[in-house]
Every structure is written in C-alpha cells, then in structure tokens.
Amino acid sequence: MTHNFPKSIRSLRWLSMGIIATGFVMKLFFLLSLLFASLSNAGHSAWEAGATTFTSEWIHIDPSFDFPTWPHETIRYYFNTPQMKTEFANDIRAAWQLWYAAGLPETFRFIEYSRTRCEAAPDDCLLIIAEYGAPSFFTSLGRQRIDPWDRNVMYLAFEGTEDEHDKALIIAHEIGHAWGLLHEHQNPLFWQWAFRGTRSDSLVQFYCENVLGFDEVEHEFNNTLLLWAEDGPCRDQARAYEFGFLASEMIPWGPRYQQPHRLWPHDYDVDWDSIMIYESHSFGADDEHGNKQLTLVRTKDLQVIPEPGTVTELDVFGMLHLYHPRYGKFREVFHNDPTSAWYAVFKDKIKNCLIKT
C-alpha cells in the first residue's frame, strides 16, 4: 500500500534524516580527530615533565637552584688574561656565529664584557680560561659554579695544531653547555642495560672497556661484573665521577633534565648530527696500532657517529625551549623532592607536624 503523506510531513521527514546524517558525520570527524591528536594538557602542570613541546631532538638542564639559567638571554664573558683574549677572541666570535647561522634568534647574546665589572659580579659573567696544553674542554652548565675556580667557567685547552674550523666547532659545543644544553648521547631514554653492557634494543652501544682509564678503574673491583652494576662506573654517572673515569661523559645523565622524547624513542628521534654529541672514538684508548678504539656507536647497523660538522636546527630548538617554553611551563619541583633547594627546610619543618596513629 502506498501512503501519500502531506507535503509538510514529507519535508519534516527529510529534515530529520538530514539531521541524523549530519550528527553521524560529526561523530565520525570527532573519532578521526582523536587518532591525530598530538598534544594534550591534562591535569596540573606539576605532574607533567615539560612534555608539551615540539617533538624535536635535544636535552637540556632542568632549570633549578643547582642549574640556574642566564637572565635576559644574555651571557657576558671575559678572558682570564689579555694575552688569551688576543689569541682566542676571534675563535669565540666565530663559534657564536655558528649558532646564529643555524637559526638562533639574535635576541640571544653572547658578548664580551669588562673584566673589572665581571670581577665585581662574578655570578653574572662567564670566565673563559683559554690556554695551550693537553686537550681538555669543560664548561659550567648554565650559571653553575665549578671547581677549582668557584665561578661560571669555560675552560679551553688546545694543542695548538687545530685549525680555525675545528676550534670553532669545539667552542660552539662548549657554548651549548654554557647556555644549559647537555650531551645528546647522554639522554637516559636512549639507553637500555643488560647484565654486562648495553642491550640490543638500546639506541647506542657502549664499549666501556675501550674508554681511557678503564684498566685503572677495573683494578678497584674484585668482581669485574660490578663495573656494570646499577651503581657501577660503567653505568652510573655519579660513580664514574668518583673514579675520575671519562665514562662519565658518555653514559646517561644522572641529575634532572628536560627533553621531548616519548618513552621509547627510535633511532630517527636522535639528532646524530648535533653539535652536542660525541663522535664514536671519543675518549677511546689506543689499540695496538695506535688508533683510537670505538667507545660509542649507533645500535642501528652499528653505525659510527661522525664528528659534528656544525650547529643544527635541532640544537637551536633545544636552546629555544630552555629559554622560551612554547607550551605550559617547566616541571615543578616539590619541597619533598631531594633535588629541591628547600628539601632540608622541608625535612626540618615536617618533624613538627602532628602525625595521627
């Protein structure tokens, strides 16, 4: 039987069908959007690890009482002697230009300052100690006073055989530390440990036995397996520091840090060209032919990590995040955290709290 509905009812019927179809399409779009959602900001920022950032490859200090950053995006530096200023001033400027060339905004400034004014306010300046001798390079992380000078220091000791380009790259690396960047290869998420050494699913393979000074450290242990224990000098950075063992510059960073990687990063997440990464023979002891042995390689096809060629765009992203977080804010440190500057006060105060039993 055919029903002849009035025209108004037929129009209403088509309208209701259109609404149902529109609702279905909207729900479909909503479900699809969930598949492509990349950023979330759920809960209080104190529980988040500064993770609401671009997925760029870098790692830097977690700004804190122990690792303060430089105010106004400016580092003022001065040289230890007028002679070294004459010798290295151009190298310092060339190294800083590599950061600008990689895209660092010129709002960041690395400028020479009066020695007299810096000596009057040492916490506001970076002392550059440059000399010739056995190669050695280390720098304060941010505004971190270091021994034996109790100042913010960049220490540069060149052999004297380096060309201008090599010196600029070395100094550019140290400038990254001065601002607060850490070594790319020391990101703890890149490392997975086995009973003795790194596992096959680690992004890097570490050959501790090839690092300079390994034999001396090994003699301190009756059981050599303890070298790779969780608190062993081939695995724990603080323990390696205790022995003065150069593995401390290779293995995962121990203190708090900021980085954007997901929990299980892949090989392509690492900036293998970063100015802040070590090449594969760094701190390697000589083999029987006088060649430096491998200390660190990529797990993927056991590829050698090359010498950095320049500052990368991702190095710049790390610097920008450290001084300009794009989303949210840095992870907050609670007073009951041992890394908090107020931890000692917190422990003292909590003794006076009434505890009901």
Automatic annotation (TrEMBL):
GO molecular function, one term: metallopeptidase activity
UniProt-listed Gene3D superfamilies: Collagenase (Catalytic Domain)
InterPro entries: MetalloPept_cat_dom_sf (IPR024079)
Name of the protein in question: Peptidase metallopeptidase domain-containing protein
Organism: Aspergillus caelatus
